[in-house]
Amino acid sequence: MMSAILVLLYLFLPVAYTFVFSFNNHGKSNIAWVPEGSPTLKHWLNPCGPPGLCQSLVNSLQIGALATLVATVLGSMIAFALVRHNFFGRGATNTLVFLPMATPEIVLGASLLTIFVQGYYRVGLELGFWTILIAHIMFCISFVVVNVKARLLSMDPKLEEAASDLYADPRTTFWKVTFPLALPGITAAALLSFSLSFDDFIITNFVSGDASTFPKFVYVSYLRGIPAEANVVGFSMFVIAVLLTVAGQLIQNRAAKGV
What we know:
- InterPro entries: Bact_Polyamine_Transport (IPR051789), MetI-like (IPR000515), MetI-like_sf (IPR035906).
- Residues 57-248 form the ABC transmembrane type-1 domain.
- It is a multi-pass membrane protein.
- The chain has two domains: 54-213, Orthogonal Bundle (MetI-like fold), CATH 1.10.3720; 227-259.
- Helices cover 74% and strands 0% of the residues.
- The chain contains twelve helices and no strands.
């Protein structure tokens, strides 16, 4: 029990730092606590004070949402194909799906930068919002495939066979039986994709051009002193993520009891 408590304290120590230093009445840098005037609520009252902070947050949320949507749809389709169908190149596809996950991010980012600069500029696509989105969709798809595939492999095929025995056509079987059973895995994959996209810095830094995301804003701010408002935004995102996770768990438990 004590070991578990110590591990949790270790894991949540950075979160505690983020929360405490969001009330710091700092000067140029927010690394050291300033006793004079602290704690203060001024950073919470105006979290968009530092230029570019809220715009970078909006960019991260938009890219995360779009990347999650596209990657979840495409990744789920690939997972269903790999689990339910035999086709030429299935084994190679299973292997290739893991490559973006196994490739170091700095190598992946440099490779994508070369592709975008050497190829996409010919069609008028410059480094910025859309190149970040394309890159995030690419590496998120692999995580979606792995999560959804694991869920599909754990499902009992007899349930779908029973639906067919009760004269349900393939489309009805999919929407009434298969999809509800696979939904927890798809939801988990979507949440993971959004988290990876929102948090990514290395690949984003290579392909972002002049566009800024929240992690990139924090890194650039570090060079001149991280504002306390960044801690406000970071801790707020943490609280929102926890609330969404708890809400999802409660909904899942209620649905399980209903069944």
